[in-house]
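User: Could you walk me through two proteins back to back? I'd like the raw sequence and the structure tokens for each, with a short line separating them so I can tell where one ends and the next begins.

Assistant: Of course. Protein one, sequence then structure:
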Amino acid sequence: YAYDHGVAPLHSRAEVYVLVEDENDNVPLADRPAYSSHVQENCAVHTSVVRVSASDADQTSAQGISFNITAGNVAHHFAIDHTGLIYTTTNEIDREVQEEYVLEVTLTDSGTPALSSTVQVVIVVDDENDNSPQFDQTFYHIMIPEVQSKESSFIIQNEVDASETDLEFEALFVGEAWHSLETDNLTGYPVFRLLAVDSDRDSNGRVLYQVKSSHGRFSIHPDSGVVYAQRPVLANNDFDLLVRASDQGSPQRRSTVRVSVHVLGPEGDGRPSTLRAPSPHFTRVTELDPVGYLVAVVQPPVLDGTIIWFSIVAGDARDEFIVGVDSGSVQLARQLDCETQAFYNLTISLSDSH
């Protein structure tokens, strides 16, 4: 607006338009502070996982935001396209190898100079029942002490006098069914324990045990894998049985192992004598230690030619530990939970057959 200083001032008006040119002074930003998603293990190639969305306050730069995975993708199991969609590049994503991926995605605009920012993407691998329970041996040869009926609560029926080792192995189990004990009605006498490990999670990794033995001589605790003799097992006899471990996934997966049991007879008066035990042993475990983890090894006194028997007699109410009946190695039978129980005081019995 302009005017003069005359007696009758004259004036005029002009409109001025100012165009502010954009400068690339804003970084592109993801629409969320972080992203999380799940993917099924062993899924197909090009399975969509999650889309990263971004915006840029600058006008021209926002039209060309590029996406790149710049960290956390060492095995190159994932890729990202120009729209921000993360997808799988392999069908070999294995939860048992890696349960979680933390990717860093870099967002870069098209300005000059280019500006960028990063956002974290967490991808959790969901479990698939792709592993069978595994025993630590393909065949077990176990020696156990003699157990007579007067020393235990056996159910005696259909006693067989013939030696079972004279028969063909497969013929031992003709007509026999897989079975296990009722957990609220345990019968018999515990003689040894087997352990199978399934690396899957939750119901896919929960192992239940069944046994098949001639004439139902042995049965097994379905959860702990402790084998119980349902009849007397007398010295110098040999028995064969099959133990099956099944997970609870769908479809269900199983493993079967053969067990050969030899019964050693007591010497002298037939009563086992208790040995002088080692001094108390202290050790630490964590919640992350897997099933089968070696917790400790109990070292017995050195007695030439004497077989030492080990058993957990107290402190393991939930059957969370296992001890080698003739080795003294204490292992985890279940993963532990510190919030459930933070301290264990196991009492392990050592005895010989003299």
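----
Protein two, same layout:
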Amino acid sequence: MTAHGGQFFAAAQQLGWSTEQALNQLLDFSASLNPLQPDFDLNINPALLMHYPPEQASPLQQLLAEKLQLHTAQIRLTNGISAAIFDFFNWLRPKQTLLYSPLYGEYARAAKLFSPHTQLIRRDLDSDSLVFPSQLNADSIVVLVNPATPDGRRYPRTQLIALLQHCQAHQAWLCIDESFLPFIGWQTEHSLRDQLAHYPKLIIFQSLTKYYGCAGIRIGAILAHPTQLENWPQATWPIATLDSLLMTQALLQANFDARTQAWLKQAKQDLITQLNDCRLIEKIYPSEANFILLKLHTPAQPLAEYLARQGLLIRACDNFGFNQPHIRLAVKTPAAHQRLATALDNYPC
């Protein structure tokens, strides 16, 4: 099984399962998606699909601006955050990149392609404090994922503001990935969005499909000072009409946030309770996101392969640079958690 998360259909093919069988029986704990999903209405006029989509989906952009308490000029919709990451690095081609690690692999891959010098700043997963880079050149890029992956730690706003000011003092760019922040809340007190107007070199990446449980839709948002977005590279292709319509439906569902908050509070505690007595687990890291990181007593990859044969996909974290085996698990439903806990208890080791 692949070590990368979210490879649902590839895993089904390796197992020899049909798509229908996989959708009914395969549980994907490797992809940290909201299992609730909005009530999508797929009864769409086919004539809409006959025409090329606009460069920017204006109704969706306006809805998102209201949700984020921003101006539309501070938002650029994009075909997923991965594409935006590579466009960002290709646009700036920084001589120096500093990545708070562990983090998404896309940032390291983009830096390898477009930045000659990349430095990893290893985060202490047991601390809320960040070590600020001492050697920081003008126009360097500093990247922090908050809440962080794979551990789900959210860094306090005081730390983020201090890091932002540190970067500004060195005329460096600060890129904050807030993809999982909506699971904590959309309030500006959790985000640096309210600083965009004051810091032209602040860039925020905001995924939408994780929170709304629709990874089959490729859509996200770049949040930045209007001057930067005016100069941002033009996307190869605009947001697909169908993607825009479905995400608009999601944003219009007023009770979805309350449902998600209630689910996550109860479901995450249920998952932790189910795993507390598991003999394979050495440590469960505290997390404010919709996933948890586990340190294991046993190698992660053989465990992942065993669980896959039971129809359970997990994220082995061997490529995050840990000295001991770790796995990441998405929060699901109590029934899914029980099935996972039973499989872990039956693991022959």
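Residues 131 and 328 are 24 Å apart (CA to CA).

Let me know if you want the two compared in more detail.
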